[in-house]
Amino acid sequence: MIKLSRARSALLAVAIAMSVAHPAFAGPGDKALEDVRILSADDMQGRAPGTPGSEKARAYILSRFAQLGLTPIGERFEQPFTFAKRDGSTVQGVNLIARIRGTEGGKAMVVSAHYDHLGVRDGEIYNGADDNASGVAGLLAVAEAFKAQPPKHDVIFAVVDAEEGGLRGARAFAAAPPVPLETIALNVNFDMLSKNPKNELYVSGTAPFPYLKPILVKVAMTAPVTLKLGHDTDAEGKENNWTNQSDHYAFAEKGLPWVYFGVEDHPEYHKPADDFATVPQDFFKRSVATVVQASLALERELDSVAKASGR
């Protein structure tokens, strides 16, 4: 009976995560779609770090934190950091960090997604709908699911800046985490969740951390998209190994287990055409439902993950 109750609770949380907060949007996943539409609109100017568009994107994300009832760690959600560009100039990036406290405490799980993109180049706006407004939308859906079904462990939401320039925000987080590093058992990272013509979403991380495989294989059995494991060994070719391709690598550098959800590259990748109009909406809704389902499952097993990893 306990297992059945938890399973039903998980399904309910997924449904609530995909439900509607705004009356104008009335179907599963529409809230996540609206997040992508707003974050990838022209007035965000491609969300390059240190720009008015980046500031506007942060304001929107913070408004969503407020809607979801998330709380900061400490006094503020905003965690600024500085980094040097290749031309020697200094830019201030800003990470947005929130937390949902667990009912029992103990270890923590960090869910991450970067909100920056390439900005404006040669007069064209690189809107970054898939890369990575989609990942931020997925993170917000996961946060809503955990608000509906409180986690056993603390879940930290890291919406990080300056990924495109060398994982700067994620590395700033990992260098000075808001909780002791030894309490973080797992990083779950989302980067590009919305575009794949084959109905495929990949999750990397089970090759270096085989104890995660049974959890994710079970998720894949009922996931609303084809969830494939891979892109995490050089046996597939170094260019196909995603271990260092997104923010999870900053956690890997600190010896932390990670999983990374994303789609393979597509024709709009790092092009001005990566805008909301090119997002296949049905696939994206199902992709978001999948990462919600996976995040709930990984948090439920976080104690066993921590034990297997020696944390």
UniProtKB/TrEMBL annotation:
Residue span(s) of domain Peptidase M28: 95-293
Membrane keyword on record: no
GO biological process: proteolysis
Keywords annotated in UniProt: Signal
Name assigned to this protein: Peptidase M28
GO molecular function: metalloexopeptidase activity
Species of the source: Caulobacter segnis (strain ATCC 21756 / DSM 7131 / JCM 7823 / NBRC 15250 / LMG 17158 / TK0059)
InterPro entries on file: M28_fam, Peptidase_M28
Signal sequence annotation: 1-26
